[in-house]
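Researcher: I'd like a structural prediction for the single chain below. Treat it as a standalone chain; there are no partners to consider.
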Amino acid sequence: MTRLFSPIQLGGLTLPNRVVVAPMCQYSAVDGVPQPWHAMHLGSLAVGGPGLVIVEATGVEAAGRISPGDTGLWNDAQEEAFAKLLAGIRTYCDTPIGVQIAHAGRKASTNAPWNRHGAPLTPEEGAWTTFAPSAVPFDNGWHTPQALDEAGLTRVRDAFAQAARRADRAGFDAVELHAAHGYLLHEFASPLSNRREDQYGGSLENRLRFPLEVAAAVREAFPRHKALGARITGSDWMEGGITPDEAVAFAVGLKALGYDFVDVTSGGVAPRAPIPGAEPGYQVSFAEQVKREAGLPTMAVGMIVEPAQAAAIVASGQADMVAVARGFLDDARWALHSAAKLGDEVRPPVQYARVVPQHWPGWRLAHPTLEESGSGD
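Model: Treating it as a single chain, here is the predicted structure.
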């Protein structure tokens, strides 16, 4: 068995393998409530063989949504819908499922990507007030956010904690705190977006203060027998922005709070940063440094599309897990097909037994009591 398809313990949760479906926004919720699309999308991913599926960035308050189509966890209707969705999936699949809780900060109040290329909402389209560490818009033509005052900081901190409680009650196995991609917690951490002159701005210690306060509130709210992690930024790809050493400092702070893993990405806080996104595995070095220097289980993400590449990242110790996004959109059975290519044992749904000889040669080892052939062809 390759190390990629070996189990890993994250807090109180054991993943059957180290392939993680990264959060992928679908922009298809209604008032924050997941829809039939989400049940289909997440269910198809869950049966595809990953060790963990993480649900898309889910707003902790209405103002924290990227778009009107984002999922949310700030009210009972959303919590109940997620509980029903998870219960449905678990009637046929025991893959662990987590959720990424988020606040979009100054990058909130936008269209879905297929509407005006994701441009900021106009008043006629239902734009809302956005919030950030400082009153600095993301880019020309974007909303000028309202700088969070003491009451606003408390409101957001409490909203994250409440979302974590709702995630637990809904039945999620894990929570990932979103502190990357130029959204609110990343905005506090980065000097490119944080111009504050109080205890939450200036030095690295000050810039990390609010993200770590939120992280502490979420840690207190989410039970230890499940897994709690964070997505952090390894680099802003801009002079004067976050560096890999600062990412390590953030991870060290999260480890001290009792976090179980970090997922290391990059970019998103500056609109024209020179990010080398066409390079497969271009962010792996950030995950490698964080893993080595912070000593926290680490996930690598970003243009990881080939099974051999994913296996090599884990085998070499550069990261403990790999998070795959576009690969799963292209092939919802990416993990199963990757395991077969690497010669690992796989366990697809029994309903798919009839295709075993073509795609999953190890299936008989996982299901020794079942026959290959199926009826109804």
